[in-house]
Amino acid sequence: MTARNLFIVTGLSLALVAGCSSDEQSAKNQNQAEDKTEQPDESKEENNATYENESATESDQPNEDESSTSEYKNENGQSENQNAYPAMGETVAEENGKKIVTNPDSIYVVANKERNLPADFVPENLVEPDVPFYANEGDPKRLMVEEAAKALEEMFDAANKDGMQLKAVSGYRSYERQEAIFAYNADRYGAEKANRVSAHAGQSEHQTGLTMDISAPSLGGSLSEKFGSTPEGEWVAENAYMYGFVVRYLKGKEEITGYQYEPWHVRYVGKEAAKEIHEAGITLEEFFAK
Ligand SMILES: [Zn+2]
């Protein structure tokens, strides 16, 4: 674990961009009630309805198997060691001056504004978790990688038993869709604003299929910081790790993640890593640092 504690912020700029901006817009378009809630992110005023009806065309792309997700696990029965997880420095390659992650199909992948997912990467085994959604049936944003989808179902079941009403907003998003959203915003608002309100294609964690944005009926499905102080948001912050999820963009860690606080965005990393990350109160950038 020592290496993880040595993380140094290298070049991530201040957190000005909502990684989920398009989700916010989408949820808004699909749910009439949420307009009433507070929407601190200016991206919510934008209308991306144009993109709502895209079909999932990327499901037929080839992919390597998922074995990379297990190769980092400690198999010798000893307690964890610093080599149990892939360090970020070992999972990136430079291509045309751009850093591209080499383990996009790993549950330990770290994608951010400095670490791009390959443009042609589409996760394997995308399925729809059986949980309540704001998005319409058949919408690609209901998809997640199967392992993460099962974990999400477990988490929603447990939350439900505790009286929580979680509702899913947006999971998988293709490179092409992210590209279209960015282009739309750039065209409409100029590149500078587009950069603040939407992620560049390849830099959205939603492309991994390992994430889900979650809201609650009390917020009408909006994705706002207020979620963090709802019973549902507090439940997620306290319990998500037990199901293999972490809240990806923590308050106070904006300069490390490059994103504003997003209590609604959970990321699957498996139960083992999630527990360590949760207990340490750190980000993926810190946990996988080296
Ligand atoms: Zn998100």
Uncertain residue ranges: 1-19, 21-81
Order of helices and strands: HHEEEEHEHHEHEHEHH
Tell me the distance between the termini.
11 Å
Largest sheet, order of strands side by side? 5-6-8-7
Give the domain tally. 1
Features:
about 290 residues; alpha+beta; Muramoyl-pentapeptide Carboxypeptidase, domain 2; four-stranded antiparallel β-sheet; two-stranded antiparallel sheet; 9 helices; about 25% helix; disordered N terminus; binds zinc ion
Describe the protein.
With 290 residues, the chain is α+β, with helices and mostly antiparallel strands. The chain has one domain (2-50, 80-85, 122-287): Muramoyl-pentapeptide Carboxypeptidase, domain 2, CATH 3.30.1380.10. It contains nine helices and eight strands. The protein has helices spanning 2-5, 21-30, 146-161, 175-189, 191-197, 231-239, 254-257, 271-280, 284-287, and strands at 92-95, 98-101, 126-127, 144-145, 167-170, 211-215, 245-249, 262-268. The strands form three sheets. Strands 5-6-8-7 form a four-stranded antiparallel beta sheet, with helices on both faces. A two-stranded antiparallel ribbon has the order 1-2. Helix 4 crosses helix 5. The protein is globular, with a radius of gyration of 18 Å. It starts with a helix and ends with a helix. The protein binds zinc ion. Residues 19-20, 23, 206, 211, 213, 265 line the site of zinc ion.
